[in-house]
Amino acid sequence: MKDFLARISRIGSLPEDDEYIILRKQIMIYQGFAMSLGGVLWGSLALFFGYPVPSLIPYGYVVITALNFVWFSKTENFVLARNVQTIISMFLPFGLQWLLGGFAVSGTVMIWALLALVLSITYQSVRSSIFWLFTYVFMMGISFAFDDYFVTHFGMGVSPFVSKVFHITNIVCVSIIILLLFLYFVTVNAKNIERVKLTYIKLITSEKLAVLGQISAGIAHEVNTPLGAIKSSAEESSKAFGEILMDFMWLTKSLTDSDKDMFVEFIATSNPSTQTLSTVEERQIKKKMRESFEELGIANSRFIAERLVQVGIYEVTPAMEKISKLEHFEKLMMITYNILNQQRSNQTIQLAVDKASRIVKALKTYLHTSNKDQVESINLRNNIETVLTIYHNRLKQGIQVIKNYEEVPDIMGHPDQLNQVWTNLIVNAVQAMDNKGILTIGLKKEDEHIVVSIKDSGKGIPKGIQDKIFDPFFTTKVSGEGSGLGLDIIKRIVDEHAATISFESMEGEGTTFYVKLPINRTAV
């Protein structure tokens, strides 16, 4: 039976048919097949009870349906086949009722015409369905108005028992067929909806991976830079540590206790600066320190000044003046350089590790896919910062980022989907500015909503296309640069979060997109 149903369901199918066209064709075929079985049953009952002439109508329905399906399989003309099937499903039951002598004796056989209304959903037009509904009501009105006429002129003396058999047959068969067709439609439609959802998720993932593909070199550079700093600092630290061990052995042997105390005091109060100097500033500080050393009568003042400035000592302190009188002052300054350089290397390693871990964490968060059926608490500031971290290498090459963040509460939603929203909007903004300009990101609370604004200083969106930018596959980018699905996906994500998206744009001045998210998902 399964094989047979599968075979007839493929009648008139085309390779290019999508799921919805296939479903519409299958409903027509299954409706015609089920009603034909009813026609065989009705014709057989009519013959059994001695009414051969009325039996011609249900048998005629079976023959016309078979011919229609054969013709449909040959020509693949769905529109004509559907129209033929709807017409015979609507009018033949009424004809049979009139021929048998009206409502009572026929068992209200006209209810089979309800299957024509079921078939009308395949038109995918409210107007067409309403037309067939009015046709059904009109035919029912005629049947009611002329029922006495049909009884008088066409009555065949059907017994009450046979009328009851007709009634039961009509109600049971039509109810079963409508229920089965409804269940089939709901089941297939649910599968199609699930398939669309999976396709949608794949589209979001592909968009996300497309962005990562565009910025993968930048991410590699962003990770490689701190790794290089860690490697360089580790090598410098290892070298300094070996020298410090030798220097401490020398200190214990060569300095008196009072000299050691003065040196320890100097190290403890040195407080090296972490401020980054410009070339001019560094040159001025070196010159000033060299002059100070020369006043103190210290030899090799240029070399010592250069070394101390490198590790953040920018002035001659009283503690340094004390030890400047010691015989081994230059040696002590080199020990100071190694100690502070070790400290600075450790700080560099820590900063580099923090930067690398921040990038890796952002990448992990960006690639994370949340459960589509469960919402999570989202800190929108962190959510946006994840995208900015991922995109940092591209942004720093010509984009000034201004952040206007206000304190806002967390919201419930899907963080990975919102990541995609900010990514697409930021990428579009950067491209609109040709990678040079000002990107302003705002975050504020507005009544029971949080508004995220992303503004660029680009060329703006021409008025002629502003009403098309959310249409699927619409793009102003050159071939190969954009799929035209970015803003369509954003719109879908925003809708899923019970949010809204809007924009303001002035040609030559730039564009601002606003995403308004409800703090509570029930807010509209």
Structure commentary:
The chain has 524 residues and is α+β, with helices and mostly antiparallel strands. The chain has helices at 2-9, 19-48, 52-75, 78-100, 103-106, 114-119, 126-145, 147-154, 160-254, 257-269, 279-295, 301-310, 318-323, 329-367, 380-390, 392-395, 415-432, 486-496, and strands at 376-378, 399-405, 411-413, 437-446, 449-455, 500-506, 510-518. The longest helix has 95 residues, at 160-254. The chain is rod-shaped and about 140 Å long.
Mean pLDDT across the residues is: 83
Spatial separation of the terminal alpha carbons = 50 Å
Radius of gyration: 42 Å
Strand content: 5-15%
- Oligomer description: single chain
Keywords:
524 residues, 5-stranded mixed beta sheet, two-stranded antiparallel sheet, 9% strand, rod-shaped
Summarize, please.
By secondary structure, the chain is of the alpha+beta class. The protein has 18 helices and seven strands. A five-stranded mixed β-sheet has the order 2-4-5-7-6, covered by helices on one side. A two-stranded antiparallel ribbon has the order 1-3.
How does the SSE layout of this entry go?
Layout: H1 2-9, H2 19-48, H3 52-75, H4 78-100, H5 103-106, H6 114-119, H7 126-145, H8 147-154, H9 160-254, H10 257-269, H11 279-295, H12 301-310, H13 318-323, H14 329-367, E1 376-378, H15 380-390, H16 392-395, E2 399-405, E3 411-413, H17 415-432, E4 437-446, E5 449-455, H18 486-496, E6 500-506, E7 510-518
Parallel strand pairs: 2-4
Antiparallel strand pairs: 1-3, 4-5, 5-7, 6-7
